[in-house]
Write a structure and sequence with these properties.
Chain lengths: 156, 508
C-alpha cells in the first residue's frame, strides 16, 4: 500500500503541476475585474502541490504501520475485476446499442456467469428491469436514456 | 410567533395530497437506498435529482429530504440485522444492535432504533424551526468575506475533527475545488482548465462525482471484502413493538443527552458520525451497568441512533440558512437547489418562504411517515439484502449509470462515473476522505466568487478577512481547528514523553 500511496501522491503532484500550468496561461494576477480567472486555481494547485510533497515525504520516510498492508486484500483482485470489467463493457456497449439493451445483456451476463442463476430468472430480471425503467424514465419522467449509435434503427 | 404562522403555511404545503405522496415515495426509496450496499443518502439523492426537474421546487426538495430520512432509517436496519453499517454514522448502532438481533431481540432493537431516530429527528426539527429564521436574519448582514469565513470554518472542521490525516484531508479539499473550477469561470466567462478539450468545457458535475465516489467506489470495496449478507431473522410483531415502546420512556435522559449532542454536532460538517460515537460513549459513561454495553443493551441502540438522526436533521440548518451543507447529503441537496436556480442562504427565507417552510414542515410529516413505514415494512426492506449478490450488484451499477447520465444527458458522464468510482476506491484505501472533496466540488463556485468579491472590495488586500469583526472571528476559529490535529499530536508526544520520564524515574 505504501507504493500506492507514493504513486497516488505523485499523481496529485502531476495534477497540481498541470493545473498551475493551465492557470498561468489565464493570468493569475490582478485584472480589470479584480483577480483574474487563473488566480483561484493557481493557488489551489500550489496548495495541492505542497500537500502532495508532504504526503510523499511521510510515505517515504515515516510510513505509518497501516501503510505496510497490501493495497488490495489477498484474493480481492478477482471479485474486483469481475465487477469492473463487465461494468466498463456495459458502458461501452450502451454507446453503441443504447443503455437499455446494454443493460439487458449486462444483467444477463452477470447473473448467468457470475451468479449461476437459472435461465428463467435471468431472463425475467434482465428483460423486465430495463423494460420497466424504460417506461419509468423515458415515458413517465420524460428523461430519455441514451439510445446509442444504432438506437434509432431499433425503433425505441 | 412569526415562525409559527410560517410553519402553519408550511404545513398547508407539506400536507397537500401530492406532497404527501411524494414524501411517502421518498421515504420508501430512501429506505431501500439506505439498505442497499453502495447506495447511501448522498448518492441516493444524487441519482434521483434529475427526477425532481419535472416537479415544483418545493415538492422536489421534499422528495430529496425524504430520501435522506429514509436512508437514515435504512442504515439502522442493515446495522442491526446484518451488522453492516449502511452509513458511517450507523457504525455505533451495530455495537449493541447486532448482538441484540443475534439473541433474537432484533424486533426490540429495530423498534428502539426507529423510535429513537424519530425522537432525535423531532428534537432537531423543533430546533431548526426556531433557529433557522434567527440565523437567516443574522446572516443577512454577511458579506462575501463572512461567507468565505464560514466556508473556511466548514473545511477546517473536516481537517480538525475529521479523523483522517490532515494533509490528506486538505489535499482532498483542494482536489474538490480544482474539479469545481474546471469549465466556465463564473466571473470572467473564460474557459478554464479544459486543456483544450471540448469534453471538459462543461466541467464536472458533482452528481456524477458523488455517484462515482460513493456508489461505485463503495461497491468495489464491498466485493473486495467478499461480504455476504447473512442476517439475523426478524419478525416484527405488534406485541414486540408495543412492549418496546412502553419500555422507552424510562430512557428519557439518554434521549435528551443524545439529541442535544446530535443537534450540536450536526451543525458542524461531518458531525453525524462523531455525534453517534460520542453519544454512545457518554451513554455508557452515565449508565449504571457500563460493562454490559456491547453485549446487546437497548440503551446502546438508542443513544447513537438518536444522535445520528438529530445530527442528520440539524445538518440541514446551515444548508438552508447559510448555504453551507453540514453533510455530504446536504451538499448534494444544496447542489440541487443551485440547479433549480435557487440561491440557498438568508435571501431564500425572504424570497421563497413557501419553499423554506414547506421543507421544514415536511421534516415533521416525513419523519412521521418514515417511522410508520419502517415499522410496518421492516421484513420487506430486510428481504432486499437477502437478494443474491449477482443480481444486486449489476442492478446497483445500472441505477448509478442512469443517475449519472440523467443530470446532463451525456454518456461521457457515465464514463466519468466509472473513473470517479476507481478514484473513490483508492481514496478510501489510502485514507483520503471523500466527503470534504464532494463538499468542495459543490461549494467551489461559491467559495471562489466570495473570495474574489472580497478581494475586489478590499482592492486586493487580504486583510479584509481580519478587519471585519464577524469574519475575523470565523477566520480565527478555523485557524484553531486547522492546527488542532497538530497540537493534539504534540500534546500526546509531550504526555508520552512525560510518562516515559516518570517511568524512568520510578525505575531509579
Amino acid at each position: 500500500m505504501r507504493q500506492a500511496d507514493i504513486v497516488f501522491a505523485l499523481c496529485l503532484l502531476v495534477l497540481a503541476g498541470l493545473v498551475a500550468w493551465e492557470s498561468l496561461a489565464l493570468n493569475i494576477g490582478w485584472g480589470i475585474n479584480g483577480p483574474e480567472g487563473g488566480f483561484f486555481p493557481f493557488w489551489l494547485a500550489v496548495g495541492l502541490g505542497l500537500c502532495s510533497l508532504v504526503i510523499l515525504g511521510q510515505a517515504v520516510w515515516h510510513a505509518a504501520p497501516a501503510l505496510h498492508k497490501p493495497l488490495v486484500a489477498p484474493g480481492g483482485w478477482g471479485p474486483l475485476l469481475t465487477v469492473a470489467i463487465p461494468a466498463i463493457a456495459m458502458v461501452a456497449l450502451s454507446e453503441c446499442i443504447g443503455l437499455y439493451p446494454a443493460t439487458a445483456l449486462y444483467l444477463a451476463f452477470y447473473m448467468r456467469w457470475v451468479g449461476r442463476h437459472r435461465w428463467p430468472l435471468v431472463l425475467a430480471v434482465s428483460i423486465g428491469l430495463p423494460l420497466g425503467s424504460y417506461f419509468l424514465f423515458d415515458k413517465w419522467f420524460m428523461i430519455p436514456m441514451p439510445k446509442g449509435l444504432w438506437g434509432e434503427h431499433l425503433g425505441l | 410567533m412569526d415562525a409559527f404562522t410560517n410553519l402553519v403555511m408550511g404545513f398547508q404545503i407539506a400536507l397537500s395530497p401530492y406532497n404527501l405522496t411524494i414524501a411517502t415515495a421518498g421515504i420508501i426509496l430512501g429506505t431501500i437506498i439506505g439498505v442497499l450496499p453502495g447506495l447511501g443518502g448522498a448518492n441516493g439523492v444524487a441519482i434521483l435529482l434529475p427526477v425532481t426537474f419535472v416537479m415544483p421546487h418545493t415538492s422536489g426538495i421534499i422528495l430529496l429530504s425524504c430520501i435522506y430520512w429514509g436512508a437514515l432509517f435504512g442504515g439502522a436496519i442493515t446495522s442491526i440485522l446484518f451488522n453492516i453499517p449502511g452509513e458511517p454514522w450507523s457504525v455505533a448502532t451495530t455495537f449493541d444492535g447486532h448482538p441484540m438481533a443475534k439473541q433474537g431481540l432484533g424486533g426490540q432493537a429495530l423498534t428502539a432504533a426507529f423510535m429513537s431516530s424519530f425522537i432525535g429527528a423531532a428534537f432537531a426539527i423543533i430546533l431548526v424551526t426556531f433557529f433557522a429564521p434567527l440565523i437567516a436574519e443574522f446572516s443577512l448582514h454577511f458579506g462575501p468575506p463572512e461567507f468565505l469565513g464560514i466556508q473556511l470554518l466548514t473545511f477546517s472542521a473536516f481537517v480538525g475533527l475529521g479523523g483522517a490525516s490532515p494533509t490528506k484531508t486538505i489535499a482532498s479539499i483542494l482536489v474538490g475545488f480544482i474539479l469545481g473550477a474546471v469549465g466556465m469561470d463564473i466571473i470572467s466567462g473564460q474557459l478554464r482548465l479544459t486543456f483544450g478539450t471540448v469534453e471538459l468545457m462543461r466541467g464536472f458535475s458533482f452528481v456524477v462525482a458523488v455517484i462515482g465516489l460513493f456508489g461505485i467506489g463503495e461497491i468495489f470495496l464491498t466485493v473486495e471484502e467478499g461480504l455476504e449478507f447473512r442476517g439475523a431473522q426478524t419478525a416484527l410483531s405488534w406485541r414486540v413493538v408495543l412492549e418496546t415502546l412502553r419500555a422507552l420512556p424510562a430512557y428519557w435522559k439518554t434521549f435528551v443527552r443524545s439529541a442535544l449532542i446530535g443537534s450540536w454536532m450536526g451543525i458542524k460538517p461531518g458531525g453525524a458520525t462523531p455525534a453517534s460515537f460520542m453519544s454512545y460513549g457518554i451513554a455508557q459513561k452515565f449508565s449504571k451497568t457500563p460493562e454490559k454495553f456491547g453485549t446487546g443493551v437497548l440503551e446502546g441502540v438508542l443513544a447513537p441512533e438518536t444522535a445520528a438522526h438529530a445530527a442528520g436533521v440539524s445538518a440541514l440548518l446551515p444548508m438552508i440558512t447559510l448555504g453551507i451543507p453540514g453533510s455530504p447529503t446536504a451538499a448534494v441537496m444544496l447542489g440541487g437547489l443551485l440547479i433549480w436556480g435557487l440561491q440557498p442562504g438568508p435571501m431564500l427565507f425572504k424570497e421563497r418562504p413557501d419553499f423554506v417552510w414547506g421543507l421544514i414542515a415536511s421534516m415533521y410529516t416525513g419523519n412521521v411517515i418514515g417511522v410508520l413505514i419502517v415499522l410496518l415494512f421492516v421484513p420487506a426492506f430486510a428481504a432486499i439484502l437477502r437478494m443474491p449478490f449477482a443480481i444486486l450488484i449489476p442492478v446497483i451499477v445500472y441505477v448509478c449509470a442512469i443517475g449519472a447520465y440523467a443530470v446532463n444527458t451525456s454518456t461521457m458522464d457515465i464514463w466519468y462515473m466509472l473513473i470517479f468510482g476507481v478514484v473513490g476506491y483508492f481514496c478510501k484505501k489510502l485514507d483520503y476522505p471523500i466527503a470534504p472533496m464532494v463538499l468542495a466540488l459543490v461549494l467551489g463556485d461559491m467559495a471562489e466568487s466570495a473570495l474574489r468579491q472580497s478581494l475586489i472590495m478590499s482592492q486586493g488586500s487580504p486583510l479584509i478577512f481580519v478587519t471585519r469583526p464577524i469574519s475575523a472571528v470565523l477566520v480565527i476559529l478555523s485557524l484553531g481547528l486547522f492546527v488542532s490535529p497538530g497540537i493534539q499530536t504534540l500534546l500526546r508526544r509531550w504526555r508520552q514523553g512525560a510518562a516515559r520520564q516518570l517511568e524512568a524515574r520510578t525505575e531509579l
